[in-house]
Queue: 3 jobs
Job 1
Amino acid sequence: MKSGELSTKRLHEVLAQNLEELIMQGQYAPGQMLPSARELAVRYGVSQTVVRDAIRSLAGKGLVQVQQGIGTSVTKDAHAGLTESYRWALRRCQVTRGEIVEMGDLLETQIAVLAAQRRTEDDLVEMQRILQEYERLAPTAPWEQVSTYHTQFHTAMMHATHNRAILAVLEPLIDLILASSEPQQLDGNAMSAYQQHLSIFQSIQRQDAKAARAAIGQHFALS
């Protein structure tokens, strides 16, 4: 983009749009530092105030993070900011726990079916690794520690669908869905939750989509 191209719109909006496109194209990779405000101002022929406003816009979208005294870098997490946006949207709509569980059941049923149909050996290895840690911790560890593997298993199941749209749209929702599907009484239920996930895994391992659908349904029914 040349400096003359910044004359027809609000400068910071056009600059933000241009930088966003460069990020999306991979010219600025995840974790990479952007040029300084001074460098960008010189490059695009605008003031540093315009640059700061553009950076603020990108940060609001979760595309970059600003660290005082260090600079601005592209966020490593493609979903940065989305989970919190979803959380606020659900709160503003006064969504109930039961409604979130119902949504999770609907979405994850199809995810389990696709995972059973499309999983690879690498997917199975990753799910087995997660379940081994889940089983080891479930009897004695605090739920906060065990729940890490609960989340990891559902995320691995999403990856096993090999559908990038599912990952882009639903992965930011996983914490919200799973927080609502945790056992109401956690004491003594971690092993029960592990057994439910083991059943889901075994169905996916056998590539039995019908059994995977039933297992995930039972998982949410017992939430």
Note: The chain has two domains: 3-74, 82-221.
Job 2
Amino acid sequence: MSEQHSAPLVEPGTSTKLGVIIASTRPGRIGLPIGTWVAEAARAHGGFDVTVLDLAEIDLPLMDEPHHPRLRQYTKPHTFAWSEAVDAQDAFIFVMPEYNFSFTAPLKNAIDYLTQEWQYKPAALVSYGGVSGGLRAAQQFKQVLTTLNVMPIKESMGLPFAMNAIEDGVYRPSESVHAQAATMFTELQRWAGALQMLRATSVLS
């Protein structure tokens, strides 16, 4: 049996390590101000140690590793760095747009680089777009996450016409969006604690 790895577990009374992944890499994207707001709101909510993982800055090339990611036999510095960043998190929030009724190619590429690092962690999806708020992309993305044993929580958010809430490069959501986010953060923390046992079991197996 191949060796299993896991990030450190969430200890009682400690902060949940939260990775906010900004999925859009397009110049002029509104994902950056939305992701910045999500990270700031998570810190204000309390109990999170937040790391922003911006795929535009991380700039992963199309998959260029010779071995299947489940083996963790990486050869490229960018893969080692991405593995370390993802492995360190207890939970994720994906800030993601909808392109042509689906999620973006850079997001799928970033997911596919790794396998074990994602497992047994919860994820919330903050999708955005036009009238649908990116919900079609979010539904498709959930299938990818569950295949990796990631738990996408029900309390995710869809933000319709999110571009209308951006002023001078800053996302300024309504009070109802703030309330939805608070519920999402609380549930994400609960799931991060609940999945500790599964992650501990994967280390021992």
Note: The radius of gyration is 16 Å.
Job 3
Amino acid sequence: MAIEELQLESRPPLTVEEFERLAETEGWDEDTRVELLDGEVVWMSPINDPHAACVKRLNQLFNRRYADQVLVSVQDPIRVEPYDEPQPDVALLRPRPDFYASATPTPPDVLLLVEVADTTLRTDLGRKARIYASGGVSEYWVVDLNNRVLYVHRAPAGGSYAERLVVGPGERVRAGFAPGIEVAIEEVTGVS
């Protein structure tokens, strides 16, 4: 096999605008599970039952605890221009009267992003953490369902997070935007 055959086709990264036009021309709907990461269209993993249950649990938990402070967004896009439009599992957004009907939320709108990882831990802690930090998302959590821990990332700086901690069983965490409210890791993972 020739070396030339091993080289991948080189093309420029897609911008968010090109990605959205592609979605329209291809007829993608809400069941087409793709996101734009580093200018590349990435197919998302199927959602299994433990993952779906955790997202539902977080939705209920955040709506109960922070209802007056946030708008809870579940598996909706966040625009991190110019080459990223991920769809985090849960985003806590600054409330807006139009519920973001006029524009996709961007990092300044985000109070907290959460990804739930059962098969995507490496991507969530690596590529997505870099994208969110580069975009200026102030706080990013990764729920590791397999190890029953929560990775907390804060203080984005230079494409990474300056503050990272792991919250394990029996421990509690506070969201940076609402330090007066604590959440037990068991409330997040569903395992006591």
Note: Confidence is low (pLDDT under 50) at residues 1-7.
